[in-house]
Predict the 3D structure of the following.
Amino acid sequence: MNYIKFLILFFFASSSAFSISPDDILAAMDKNRDYNTVSYEGTMEIHIGGEVRSKTMKVIGVGTEKALVEFTNAQDKGTRYLKINKELWIYFPSEQDVVKISGHMLKEGMMGSDVSYEDALESDGLHKKYNASISGEELLDGHACYVLTLDAIVKDVPYYKRTMWVDKSLFIQWKEEMYAKSGALLKVSHVLEMQKIGSRHFPTKLEMVNMLRKDTKTVFTMADVAFDVKIDKSVFSLQSLQR
Amino acid sequence: MKTLLLLAIRNIGRNKRRSLLAIVSVAISLTVIVFAQGFIAGFVQSFVKNATKNDAGHVRVATKKFEERSRFYPVTYNISGPDSIIASIKRDPEVSSNIALVTSRISFGVLLSNNGNNRSAIALAGDPGKEKNLLYLQKSIVPPGRYLEGKRDIIMGSTLAQSLHYGIGDTVRVMTSGSDYALHLKKFVVRGLFATGLNVFDDMMFQIGIDDARDLLAMGKASQQIIIMLSDYKKADKVAERIRTIISDTSISVTPWTKIGDTFTTVELVSKIYGWIYVVIALLGAFIISNIMMMVVMERRKEIGVLKSMGFKRREILIMFLMEGMALGFVGSMVGSALGAGLVVFFHVHGIDLTSYMSRISIPLDNVIYTSLNVTNLVYAISLGTILSALVSIAPARQAANMNAVDAMKSV
């Protein structure tokens, strides 16, 4: 009898080791991104063939709904992107004109990078658009990770299927693979560096590889990251974009 | 042989009505063939001219990566030093003596939008002065518009402009991915609308200056293509071969128009198909000679018997009747070719207006086709008519040759 009780206890104990649900994991990941405002200095290195193009920018954002990016490197100085919810506008300083990016243009890489405008516009929680399941656990670059598989439940998603390697203790997504409906692997992202800022674990260096383009990758670095800073919300307007 | 020929010619005159019928039949066929040859020659000339000058030229210099993906008009695989390549080409006497024009060009696809209307379009960017002798768009500008004169000028196909509600003086925003893969925007002012009569142009294309295109596409001083037009398009293969020896950069490809796209394959296919059609038409016209010669042989059985008894050999009888058939065919061919040539010359001057038909198709052809007379084609047509007439005369000539002399003399 004691032996049977032991077996029953052991069974339940084992189950509870995997009792974290996929939604719990996604919620924990979202918590790392839960801030009122954010600002940072970004550097984007676009590797194409043997060539590297470097772009620098200042970024401010309100939650995940609004963001303003202004490029500061010489070649693109003054170019600005304004994101408001799911809409994106670009200000071209040479033409003093603003264009809304929509339709097929959203799939283009930002400034020629492997990060598309569509990627940048993603704001809703993943749990709203995907059905998540834990497909296993893996050790990735020394980090113990849950392997999450996400299948789209709505049509309005850039990637039909996603596989994520999520740190079991920090709930940071160290690696992600993004797939098309056909099953073709479209992009792979890696977090190369992470910092603890306040109570948040925040990726500060990411690499994105577009699997549909040969010999290209984009490395995005964030410096001077600050959360919940005071931001004048009037800057998130078309009038302000063209100033 | 001379005697047999004289006999054959004399025999043609013995029944003038029948001989005239044979000659007229062959003449009609040859008139059709010569005119068709002239029309097809004009058609091919128009097709090659428009397909090459608007697209790849007679010879195109570009990077190998561009050639692999040329149908997508990529702007990311460019020639970094086009001016030095052009200078090298012009320095070579063998090449320069064949060149009519050489220029840099950039072509790219773009989606134009205006007030909710979207249209796919193709931009042609080149040296406006040189493109005057290539695209000739300045001749098709609808008044009060004008051709490109300065920076940010754009001229647009009239049908394309109409569908996007653009007029003279309007601002056009052209936004596209540049050579750095990033989105770029440049605004242009519509200076003119062109109506060439070529739907593939008027419905889809606009022209800007190459410096504006380089600025828009972040290309620096690079070019996507170097277009070379020759004084004789048939020398393209030879000139391309020579240019390959001049350019040392192994990433550069030199391609004659015969190897680009489907133009050459289409031309070859059209020529082959029409070659067979001419044979069929000539055969139909010459077939009446076979019937006539059969009748002649039956009527002249006694005469054949007499000739054989006089010592004419089987081979000589055969040749005599063959020559008769051939002579009818030759005269018919000459008459028909002369008539056909006259029609070709007339339509070479006045042209054949196909405007109403061309509105339904979008291939690079002029709306008015000018026929073209070619001596080689004329000689071919006359030879075809004559030889086929001889061929269809073989059967009746053999029948005459194989007759028994005694039986032939006894026949009524």
About this structure: The domain at 22-241 of chain A is CATH 2.50.20.10 (outer membrane lipoprotein receptor (LolB), chain A). Chain A has five helices and 13 strands. Chain A touches chain B at residues 46, 48, 53, 90, 92, 94-95, 97, 99, 101, 104-105, 108-113 (CB under 8 Å). Residues 109 and 183 of chain A are 21 Å apart (CA to CA).
